[in-house]
């Protein structure tokens, strides 16, 4: 019974099907032997679904999603309650706004889902060539099954995950691009397995190929795949070959420079790696949203208290003799429990409009449109001078816009984030001798930093060995000009001549910039790598003016991983001998080397690291045939163990990479990005503590931190390094805290912390909570923190430690450029990705992404500041305007014997939040700019004024609500004071009844609320003014239509028929509107004027634009530009500044970064694609 129930759940899609640990796939659905038992598992179809809804489940699913929001569910309950009681207002007053809000959201989501359905249909119905019935036929992509053999042609996308069987190339290789997967645009090579290379046609595959694949079940990791393929041969036993990610063609990748490729489907549909990576990650919630939940809870409690008070007053005070209930027209009531509950619910319904129903919709709309401006900013636009790629800033989410304005801790990677990740070969040491590069020439030097001794025209034995290793120990692919390919196409590899002139135009495509720098340096010195043909690396060495060609067969490549921190290649020379080449980080390589000049390596690595250069150790080992045979068997056994491949490969690699001979070390320079120093300095001035997390050597990392402005020469460094125990870390922390306490005032002495990965493993461990607390306390007292020798997991744990260990919880931001930074980016409150040279993994997994680190200054200090201020004021304004509007119902209860009679017509309760007041505040949230751009970016201290969610402190809410209460008092009692004296104030015998009275109150409230948004606005622009005009005209039109309508939708009685026209003809209505509004707004105008005067005095006293006053009066932050009569153009001002020079030394330029920004001003000019194209032409 249980199994039957599980099958039903699986069939309807509520439960994923259960598979074995590994899947078995028969290629082309044919068993190895005809007599074998043949049973194929049923796997997911290739039908791709990215949509969220179907026609059947849209209504139910969408309603459930929307009612999961507190406000929507609250109004649903209120609407239901109105149907079950004698409601004081029409149920339509709650139902209509709820339906409109939810309907608008549903229409938006339905439209987006229709677009997804169309995209899915296009992908699923694309024609693909598949072998069926021993012929190549066209089938639709969704009809592909696991085990089908698929043929893909040049420039076509792969419809599913395939294992490559063969290609149009004799080598069985094919080139692909994976931009849709990881954003990388460079060509990658995928290899077919040896037994299937010759099978290039449908007939040969059907007749000759009998194979079975055993591989792991689908995972999200794009860079890992493990499996085996057993191939049957007619003349010899089965071949068992290993499958890895090098044999895998991923769905979404595109075939390039290859006529066709043939592969067998292993993962289809929703089980492809691309689809598995498309699933939603953990949602992030901004600090404003978290505070908004508390505000809503507060107002719900206030609403409940008001309702209880009014209910008590009705059955207490109001029933006493001599009160209004003694009137003949008020019937006596008996206080029964049900009647009391009904009254309580009636007051809850009456006061429920205190909760702004349209708040969530307005916030979503404001965030979505606001995030578009992020990509329009030309100050954050970059065109790569090498590739010509145009990179604009991009917001991958709109949910965290305001979080950019609340960052307190910034965690940054170093390589590729602070630096260009553009490696240049600078120096090296070979044995006890040191060398440097001077414009492509190799010079021997006197020590690492000494003078040049002599230029090396030719390389001797050790030098030649060193650069030969550099030219061979890599996975570089050589791109050659077509002319060379064409001229030599007819020549066999052994007959072709490889010349130095040909190599000058080679383009080395490397997975790591280090490898590219090594190969180019070796080429400059006469050791030229010409590429790999049929598994053979071709090298030419210039000796005595002649070029000697060497060929090395690649037997094994031991890929780099963060645990070993090295990579190796096993080669076979032409004479049959075996050679192991290794390069890696000094920290891991020294223990692998048993011979060679290890002392020189240790000495020079420290000296070169102090210069800020990246150091790698080069080593090798000669292998006997027996040693190679044992290594090969060990590696093959590990690779074929699909279940434990990774663990066994690590063990095999470690056993292979031992007893090496140290040859020397390399020192390459990673150029610092332009504007980094100025950006870090500005962020520090803004109150943001910058942590640099890197895997580099400590000396190198400290030097780069000094160059980047992360450290300064005056900072005292507290080092926690090389600690082997928790006790050692505890002692280092104690000494550091004591040094700070006894070091004097923080203003006179600044400190920074340096910690290495060895010590971090204790500081971030959960079992040492007291170490975490002490470490965080130490870091909070310092100006900067540097963590070196970090693994990717340690980076994420450091972010988590700060995020969860400091109270109150700070807002963290992580920025990086590589796949190793993804975990850190996801862990932080805000993740920023840099378009890196090693891929787009960080950019794809981030919340925001752009091309250069210096753009983080624009993102945080300008965009983040404005996003936060706009949304904070928007939230406060919503609560203010509802307090100003609905509190009149409480006042009126004292005049209506607490009978829950509404002073407003149902129309006003229905449209107040939807149309009367929604548009002006939305436009304020989109286009308000309380300070000009140049001040926000040039005065980082302004960022401190909004830190820690300061504009949404409870006192801020209290201030706005106090103003709302004052406005409600003026609007209600100002009108009531006149009508209480004489209700015959109208002309031509017109009498103001309760609805006419309520209408005049609404006029006054609307005037105050609209004027209030004008008072807190600093940048008046065309959209805002149009919004005010549309609101006024729309309000008049709605009242005109409602006044002549005889449809009883909102009320059972036509109480408002012709009322608007009658009221508008009464002079007293307009006089009251003017007088009450002036009275109510006088404090607002006085407060604004006082704040302007205070700001002006501060600016004059300082002589230049300085910090604004305390952020306590958040709505009154004011720009001198506005006060002097210059309206600040909203959006993105253009500010032309000087592009800073790139620098790599310890001093940073003080010039500001280049700025070409988008302007959205009163001229209503958008700079979008045309602006980018115009800049490209310039």
From TrEMBL:
Chief location of this protein within or outside the cell: membrane
Residue stretches of biased makeup (Basic and acidic residues): 1133-1144
InterPro entries from the UniProt entry: ATPase_P-typ_cyto_dom_N (IPR023299), ATPase_P-typ_P_site (IPR018303), ATPase_P-typ_TM_dom_sf (IPR023298), ATPase_P-typ_transduc_dom_A_sf (IPR008250), ATPase_P-type_domA (IPR059000), HAD-like_sf (IPR036412), HAD_sf (IPR023214), P-type_ATPase_IV (IPR006539)
Pfam families given in the database record: Cation_ATPase (PF13246), E1-E2_ATPase (PF00122), PhoLip_ATPase_C (PF16212), PhoLip_ATPase_N (PF16209)
GO cellular component, one term: endoplasmic reticulum
Domain P-type ATPase N-terminal: residue ranges: 25-92
Gene3D superfamilies on file: Calcium-transporting ATPase, cytoplasmic domain N (3.40.1110.10), Calcium-transporting ATPase, cytoplasmic transduction domain A (2.70.150.10), HAD superfamily/HAD-like (3.40.50.1000)
E.C. no: 7.6.2.1
Alphabetical list of SUPFAM superfamilies matching this protein: Calcium ATPase, transduction domain A (SSF81653), Calcium ATPase, transmembrane domain M (SSF81665), HAD-like (SSF56784), Metal cation-transporting ATPase, ATP-binding domain N (SSF81660)
A biological process from GO: phospholipid translocation
Positions bound to ATP: 413-415, 515, 560, 583, 614, 694-696, 789, 795, 820-821
Membrane topology classification: Multi-pass membrane protein
Residue spans crossing the bilayer: 295-317, 344-363, 867-894, 906-927, 957-982, 994-1015, 1022-1048, 1068-1087
Catalyzed chemical reaction(s): ATP + H2O + phospholipidSide 1 = ADP + phosphate + phospholipidSide 2
Active-site residues, record numbering mapped to chain: 413
Biased composition (Polar residues): 1151-1163
Top EC class for this record: translocase
P-type ATPase A domain boundaries: 126-273
Alphabetical list of PROSITE patterns matching this protein: ATPASE_E1_E2
Region of interest called Disordered, as start-end residue ranges on this chain: 1133-1178
Protein name, entry field: Phospholipid-transporting ATPase
Provenance organism: Macrostomum lignano
């Amino acid at each position: 019974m249980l199994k039957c129930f599980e099958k039903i759940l699986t069939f309807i899609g509520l439960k994923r099907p259960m598979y074995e640990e590994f899947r078995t796939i028969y290629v082309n659905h044919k068993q190895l032997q005809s007599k074998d038992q043949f049973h194929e598992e049923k796997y997911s179809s290739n039908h791709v679904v990215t949509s969220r809804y179907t026609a059947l489940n849209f209504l139910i699913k969408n309603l459930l999603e929307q009612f999961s929001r507190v406000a929507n569910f609250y109004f649903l309950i209120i609407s239901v309650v109105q149907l079950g009681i004698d409601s004081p207002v029409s149920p339509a007053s709650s139902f209509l706004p709820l339906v409109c809000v939810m309907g608008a959201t549903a229409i938006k989501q339905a439209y987006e889902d229709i677009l997804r359905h169309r995209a899915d249909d296009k992908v699923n119905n694309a024609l693909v060539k598949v072998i069926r019935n021993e012929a190549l036929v066209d089938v639709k992509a969704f009809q592909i099954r696991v085990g089908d053999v698929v043929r893909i042609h040049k420039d076509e996308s792969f419809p599913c995950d395939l294992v490559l069987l063969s290609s149009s190339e004799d080598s069985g290789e094919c080139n692909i691009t994976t931009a849709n997967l990881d954003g990388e645009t460079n060509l990658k090579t995928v290899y077919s397995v040896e037994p299937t290379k010759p099978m290039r046609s449908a007939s040969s595959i059907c007749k000759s190929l009998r194979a079975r694949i055993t591989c792991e079940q689908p995972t999200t990791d794009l860079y890992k795949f493990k499996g085996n393929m057993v191939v049957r041969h007619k003349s010899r036993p089965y071949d068992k070959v290993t499958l890895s990610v090098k044999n895998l063609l991923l769905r979404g990748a595109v075939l390039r420079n290859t006529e066709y490729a043939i592969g067998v489907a292993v993962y289809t549909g929703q089980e492809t790696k691309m689809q598995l990576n498309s699933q939603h990650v953990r949602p992030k919630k901004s600090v404003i949203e978290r505070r908004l939940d508390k505000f809503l809870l507060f107002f719900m409690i206030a609403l409940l208290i008001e309702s209880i008070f009014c209910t008590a007053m009705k059955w207490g005070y109001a029933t006493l003799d001599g009160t209004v209930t003694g009137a003949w027209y008020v019937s006596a009531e008996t206080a029964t429990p049900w009647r009391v509950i009904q009254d309580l619910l009636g007051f809850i319904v009456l006061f429920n409009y205190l909760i702004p129903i349209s708040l969530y919709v307005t916030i979503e709309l404001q965030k979505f449109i606001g995030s578009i401006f992020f990509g329009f900013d030309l100050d954050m636009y970059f065109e790569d001078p090498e590739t010509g790629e145009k990179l604009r800033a991009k917001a991958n989410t709109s949910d965290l816009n305001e979080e950019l304005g609340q960052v307190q801790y910034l965690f940054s990677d170093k390589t590729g984030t602070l630096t260009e990740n553009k490696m240049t070969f600078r120096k090296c040491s070979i044995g006890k001798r040191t060398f440097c590069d001077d414009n492509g020439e190799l010079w021997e030097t006197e020590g690492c930093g000494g003078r040049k001794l002599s230029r090396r025209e030719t390389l001797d034995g050790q030098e030649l060995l060193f650069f030969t290793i550099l030219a061979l120990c890599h996975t570089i692919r050589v791109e050659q000009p077509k002319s060379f390919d064409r001229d030599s196409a007819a020549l066999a590899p052994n007959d072709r001549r490889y010349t130095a002139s040909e190599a000058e135009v080679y383009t080395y495509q490397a997975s790591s910039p280090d490898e590219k720098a090594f190969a180019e340096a070796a080429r400059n010195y006469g050791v030229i790598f010409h590429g790999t043909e049929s598994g053979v690396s071709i090298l030419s060495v210039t000796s005595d003016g002649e070029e000697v060609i060497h060929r090395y067969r690649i037997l094994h490549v031991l890929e780099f991983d963060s645990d070993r921190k090295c990579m190796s290649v096993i080669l076979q020379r032409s004479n049959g001998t075996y050679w192991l080449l290794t390069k890696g980080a000094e920290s891991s390589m020294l223990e692998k080397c048993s011979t060679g000049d290890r002392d020189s390596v240790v000495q020079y690595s420290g000296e070169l690291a102090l210069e800020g250069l990246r150091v790698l150790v080069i080593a090798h080992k000669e292998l006997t045939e027996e040693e190679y045979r044992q290594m090969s068997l060990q590696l093959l056994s590990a690779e074929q163990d699909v279940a434990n491949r990774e663990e066994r490969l690590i063990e095999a690699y470690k056993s292979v990479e031992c007893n090496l001979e140290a040859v020397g070390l390399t020192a390459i320079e990673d150029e610092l990005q332009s504007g980094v120093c100025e950006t870090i300095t500005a962020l520090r001035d803004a109150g943001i503590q910058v942590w640099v997390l890197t895997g580099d050597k400590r000396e190198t990392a400290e030097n780069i931190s000094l160059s980047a402005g992360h450290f300064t020469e005056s900072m005292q460094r507290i080092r926690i390094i090389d600690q082997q125990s928790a006790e050692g870390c505890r002692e280092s922390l104690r000494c550091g805290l004591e040094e700070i306490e006894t070091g004097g005032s923080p203003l006179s002495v600044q400190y920074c912390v340096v910690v290495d990965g060895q010590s971090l493993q204790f500081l971030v461990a959960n079992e040492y909570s007291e170490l975490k607390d002490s470490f965080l306390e130490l870091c909070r007292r310092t100006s900067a923190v540097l963590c070196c020798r970090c693994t990717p997991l340690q980076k994420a744990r450091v972010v988590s430690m700060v995020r969860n260990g400091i109270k109150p919880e700070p807002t963290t931001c992580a920025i990086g450029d590589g796949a190793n930074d993804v975990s850190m980016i996801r862990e932080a409150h805000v993740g920023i990705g840099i378009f890196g040279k090693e891929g787009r993994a960080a950019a794809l997994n981030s919340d925001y992404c752009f091309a250069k680190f210096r753009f983080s200054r624009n993102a945080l200090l300008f965009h983040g500041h404005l996003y936060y201020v706009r949304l904070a004021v928007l939230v406060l304004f919503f609560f203010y305007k509802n307090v100003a509007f609905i509190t009149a119902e409480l006042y009126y209860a004292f005049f209506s014997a607490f009978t829950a009679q509404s002073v407003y017509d149902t129309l006003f309760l229905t449209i107040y939040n939807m149309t009367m007041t929604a548009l002006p505040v939305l436009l304020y949230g989109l286009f308000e700019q309380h300070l000009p751009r140049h001040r926000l970016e040039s005065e980082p201290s302004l960022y401190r004024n909004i830190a820690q969610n300061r504009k949404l402190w409870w006192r801020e809410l209290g201030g706005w609500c106090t103003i709302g209460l004052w406005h409600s008092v003026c609007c209600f009692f100002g009108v009531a004071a006149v009508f209480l004296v004489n209700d015959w104030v109208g002309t031509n015998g017109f009498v103001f009844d309760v609805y006419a009275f309520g209408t005049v109150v609404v006029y006054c409230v609307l005037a105050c609320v609209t004027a209030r948004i004008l008072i807190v606005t600093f940048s008046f622009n065309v959209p805002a003014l149009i919004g005010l005009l549309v609101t006024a005209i729309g309000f008049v039109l709605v009242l005109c239509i409602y006044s002549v309508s005889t449809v009883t939708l909102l009320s059972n009685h036509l109480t408002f028929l012709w009322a608007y026209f009658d009221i508008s003809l009464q002079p007293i209505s307009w006089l009251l509107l003017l007088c009450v509004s002036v009275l109510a707004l006088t404090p607002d105008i006085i407060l604004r004027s006082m704040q302007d005067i205070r700001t002006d005095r501060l600016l004059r006293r300082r002589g230049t634009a300085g910090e604004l006053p305390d952020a306590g009066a958040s709505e009154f932050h004011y720009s001198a530009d506005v006060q002097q009569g210059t309206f600040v153009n909203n959006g993105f001002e253009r500010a032309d500044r000087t592009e800073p020079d790139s620098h790599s030394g310890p001093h940073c330029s003080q010039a500001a970064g280049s700025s070409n920004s988008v302007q959205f001003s009163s001229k209503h000019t958008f700079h979008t694609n045309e602006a980018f194209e115009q800049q490209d032409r310039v």
